[in-house]
Design goal:
With 420 residues, the chain is of the alpha/beta class. Among the domains are: 163 residues, Rossmann fold, CATH 3.40.50; 98 residues, GMP Synthetase, Chain A, domain 3 (2-Layer Sandwich). The chain contains ten helices and 19 strands. The strands form four sheets. The chain has an eleven-stranded mixed β-sheet, sandwiched between helices. A four-stranded mixed β-sheet has the order 18-17-16-19. Strands 1-2 form a two-stranded antiparallel sheet. Strand 17, helix 10 and strand 18 form a beta-alpha-beta unit. Helix 7 packs parallel to helix 8. The N and C termini lie far apart (50 Å). The structure holds zinc ion (ZN). Zinc ion binds next to loops.
Length: 420
């Protein structure tokens, strides 16, 4: 099991161990799963990690052959959609498999397949890695999420009480349920934690920690949460694609290179696109899979002792990057610009609109601020945008009194939209 530190104490030992583990794992998968037998055809064992890359489209169109689920793809989809519509995630597909559905940030839905055993392994690694969840530190843990499968608790976690709160329910309802339960840890998307902090609606009697998942939590917002809620703030980087990273006991953000083999496609000095290959997942394993996320890499080693790659932060989806005349403009740059322009700004939404040739046609900005004089702000923003090489005369619309409600939609502050 991961966490044994069989993977050593230095980055070199880790890489060596990882290569062996990946080749063992993928030799087995190549034998067992028809899709990968074909995909990796002609590669001898030593070349097994050099095959063609995959992505969500390939993963979805290769169902069920790229998984261990023995059923027709349309039956799996039907089952997943029914569970999603009824908000009842308690049943197993064919009494064996957990099936999850993600609407996805790109609008293309995807299926997530696992078993209770594999899900227990995942929870075990989550609880062993995330400092706020280590044994003895917490008992009542609330998961405030958009979708969920029944929780299958590993026996090591049996003393814990885990409960799911559904973001599809009206906010007043789940907030009331959450508060009357008095959890000591709340796990929720970043935007939901920020909402709870802003509304001062989270009852903090027993609360010891909150853990941000599923969305980008900027470093500034991390300290903001810590300050406002007065509790420890953890961070888990996780998607349908797996448990990708976590913030360690030293507060550093690590990628879980002991669970997943990451490849880093550099697009600008320390900014990289991630490719992931599973080292353990068996039911729906991912191979050189284009995650679509961008991260800012951080060098050096961490005093927590883990030799895994550190990152400054997850920058967001590749699709949220606007490619301007002088180079890419990342969501975190927009975030910093807005923070400087609007002191104390709680939230905003920034929409780049581009035409079919990728040329910028307008920018729409919504801010939580109630500031009256938006024309003054637009003027100073225009000056700053010039520094990014944006041409003069790009229409820039700023509107105020924006209020983000926590709900089923995944938050993306900065988005690129094709012109309609
Ligand atoms: Zn660390």
């Amino acid at each position: 099991m991961a966490g044994h530190r069989a993977w050593g104490t230095t980055p070199d030992q880790l890489k060596e161990w990882q290569r062996h583990q990946a080749i063992d794992h993928w030799t087995q998968i190549q034998n067992d799963l028809p899709f990968f037998r074909e995909w990796l055809k002609g590669l001898v064992q030593a070349e097994l990690l050099n095959g063609r890359t995959t992505h969500k489209g390939i993963a979805m169109s290769s169902l069920p052959g790229s998984t261990r689920v023995r059923a027709a793809a349309e039956d799996i989809w039907t089952f997943a959609k029914a569970a999603e519509a009824s908000r009842d995630f308690s049943a197993l597909f064919k009494d064996q498999w957990i099936v999850g559905l993600s609407s996805g940030t790109t609008g293309q839905p995807s299926l997530f397949l696992t078993t209770p055993q594999e899900h227990s392994f995942y929870l075990g690694t989550l609880f062993s890695k995330v400092p706020q969840l280590r044994p003895g530190r917490s008992q009542k843990i609330a998961f405030v999420l958009r979708a969920f499968s029944k929780l299958y608790e590993p026996s090591a976690l049996s003393r814990l009480d885990l409960r799911f709160f559904d973001l599809y329910a009206p906010a007043e309802q789940w907030i009331q349920e959450l508060n009357s339960w008095e959890p000591d840890v709340v796990i929720a998307p970043a935007s939901v934690l920020l909402y709870l902090a802003a509304e001062e609606s989270l009852w903090r009697k027993n609360l010891r920690a909150v853990i941000s998942v599923a969305e980008v939590l900027e470093p500034e917002k991390h300290s903001h949460l810590q300050r406002v809620l007065g509790v420890d703030v953890g961070e888990v980087y996780q998607a349908m694609e797996g448990f990708l990273g976590h913030r360690c006991s030293e507060g550093e953000f690590h990628l879980n290179e002991d669970l997943i083999r990451f490849e880093y496609q550099t697009i600008q000095s320390n900014v990289a696109r991630l490719l992931v290959t599973d080292l353990y997942r068996n039911i729906q394993p991912l191979y050189r899979y284009e995650l679509g996320d961008l991260v800012r890499l951080k060098g050096g080693s961490c005093s927590c002792g883990q030799p895994t790659q550190r990152i400054h932060e997850v920058l967001g989806r590749q699709g949220d990057v606007y490619y301007g005349p002088t180079g890419p403009i990342f969501p975190d740059q927009v975030y910093r610009l807005m923070s400087v322009q609007f002191e104390g700004l709680e939230d905003f939404s920034w929409k780049w609109t581009i035409d079919s040739k990728g040329r910028l046609t307008k920018i729409d900005i919504l801010v939580t601020s109630t500031l009256k004089d938006f024309s003054r702000v637009s003027e100073s923003l225009k000056v700053l945008l010039k520094e990014w090489g944006l041409p003069d005369g790009i229409p820039l619309h700023v509107k105020g009194a924006f209020h983000r409600q926590p709900g089923p939609t995944k938050q993306r502050r900065v988005q690129v939209h094709p012109e309609t």
